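Many introductory courses stop at the sequence. We go one step further.
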Amino acid sequence: MSLSRRSVLATTGAALVAPALPTPVFAQAPVPELQTMRSTAKSWLWAAEDYAQAAGFFDRARVKVVSNASNRGTNIAALAGSGVDIVLGDPGEAMRGKGSGMAIKTFIQTVNKYASNVVIKKSVLERLGVTEASAVERKIAALKGLRLGTTGPGAAPDALFRWLAVNGNINPNTDMRLVTIQGGGPGMLAGLQQDVIDGFCLSSPTSDLAVQTRDCAYLFNMALNPPPFFQNYLYICASTSEAALRNADKREALVRYCHGISMALKSINSETTKLKEWADKWFEGLPPEIAQVSFDINSKIFFADPVPQATLFANNVSFLNAVNQTMNADLIPASLTFEAQFDSAVCREGVARA
């Protein structure tokens, strides 16, 4: 087919002009960012968030999550400011905050065991003739007179010791010494080495390190052998401010956070090899035998469904009331119902996207 001179010039001109034209750019909505707060930098208690980060689930959910550690036992007060969007912790901390008038809501659940373990020096347990296999009553009685490390009043380790004392007819204020230890896991291990404490309550891998390297033994391995009350227990959840939930953009970011956590929990409960590869890198530096023990204990402490369940709330109330009585604190008011404390709609929406 022949081309006319005019058509050749037109085609050539178009070719010369085309590169100079701007390439269409399609605007993409910015990825929202959330600041989260937890007590310590690394623990199996926060693994749902950290695993979601490393495995790319937050990227898939299109949300940026910046995790912060306070090295304090309680952090719920951070939601009263503007720098923190989400606080991770136990429901008792959130319920105390709500009960004191804080405008907060709990919106997601991740850990279904009270996975802060009680470890005691072997020499103490041998003197008392108590092991992890002993009856719960005998194990509680072994705490009497001991110096026990916690992360401070109102925090989960302190609360567990108080609950155990109540259920063993021990006065936690006079029959045992609850010692506040700063510095998280390293602080607890140093306290043992310096003979400041006889044992402590904290999550893995610190409790596993104490057993393997500080001549301690589990008194209560709360992941594998807890008192019956804690067999299925809401332990780690996430809370946010009511103002964030009313803000359309922030609420969307929270829904995306739940989407990412939902994908992470699904993987945690079904992809053991992938989880183990992540744990080996995340807890890098642990001796292989400790890493394996820690994984075996803690890989099964996570909910498959992150949507908060009303059926578990009664145990949280019962636990907190028992603890509050030992601290001369008010009981949980009847007005603090599941619906008052939790906003499950955000999580349900996130799960539906997974």
